[in-house]
Amino acid sequence: MSFDAIIIGAGPAGYAAAIRLGQKGKKVAMIERDKIGGECLNYGCIPSKALIELANTVYSANETPGLKSTIDIDFKEWQKWKWDMIHKLTSGVETLCRSYGVEIIHGDAMIVDARTVSVGENRYEGENLVIATGSSPVHFNGMESAVSNREILDIENVPKSLVIIGGGYIGIEIGTALKKLGSEVTVVEMMDSILPGVDRELVAPVERKLKAMGVEILTSTKVSSVNKEKGYSVTLEGGKTLNCDLVLLTVGRTPNTQGFGLENLGVEMDGRYVRTDERKMTTVPGVYAIGDVSGEPMLAHKAYYDAEVAASNIAGEDAVVEYQAMPFVIYSDPEISYTGRKGKNQSMFPLAANGRALGMNSTIGSYRIYFDESGIVTGAGIVAPHSSEMISEISLAVEGGLSAMDIGMTIHPHPTISEGVREAAEGAYGKPLHFKTGR
Fold first, then answer.
1. What domains are there in the chain, each with its CATH number?
2. d(CA 221, CA 242)
3. Is the pTM value of this prediction over 0.90?
């Protein structure tokens, strides 16, 4: 069989490329060895946020002043609901793909050459090849008994005690959720701060909230081994041992580049990743790599974007990547969202001065708008409830070359958390309504 494009992988990068190419009238084959939707829809983004929503609901009921409640969670019932919800989402993606004429092939792909891929005894020919194989959790020797994000999101009982190895975004998100659901949580991070790589001014409010909740954070600490007998024991460098009911290992992800014949192409690598140009083409003409396998950041929305660029080029259009306003979100408490770059100046508005946040009993955080000497917005960092829903406003401002005054003069509804974005923007020219700056 011959196709305009063969896509290996049906995660966000793969299925997005398939849909976009189908919309452009191209004949597409998409090969997937596991489940449509890949890691994100089945084992990562979607189920983890569902767990976080459950935890936030329980936590809010317990922490709201004047509200007295006892909540009994049937985790088996919740897991059934979760998988039913995921199935609705993934089956919807599959239906969409098929509606655009995409042929979905289940099985293990093996690259024969740049134009040929086999699945079992069947061979498929394509004018273009798209590698969208995603990434997998990193594992360490001596820690084989620890669970990854996949297993912990399928638990049917909340562990009484949990040790998380790795204080990156996955560890902090899941650790926060399980603490809210009743676990005693300890986070072990080898760097000198949790969420390494994120500006300290954004991390500090989250760290403060975690400590207030009773999460133990051990930074500048390495783990030597993990042992499992009746329970778990985590041995730290220096000899200290932590005993717990469950251990979560979350120390990053590695691109999937083995086991499907990538070496048969002779593509150049960029460290662990497949090297691509600004059109997402590899060093082999007609072969593209998108999503996690093509480089950081390993984000589903970056994968969607890569897919759009690759599909456009395969269809004969001219598209190049431009990541100047790539939003990042950490679903901590409060949420951290940031985009663009810091620039030379910044304006800060405290979350505690926002009326909606006060009414939510959630006042730890801030809004920061970054701008240049002309007042043009270069980025932002927001630490607030639902900041994930607000950061796109700043990405649009960066992409559009808007000024802080453009945002400040835009009417935002009251009372909302998003008002803080406007007030932070007003602070760039010294005029926030509900906070007096030093200007």
1. 2-137+254-314 (3.50.50.60), 149-251 (3.50.50.60), 328-427 (3.30.390.30)
2. 12
3. yes
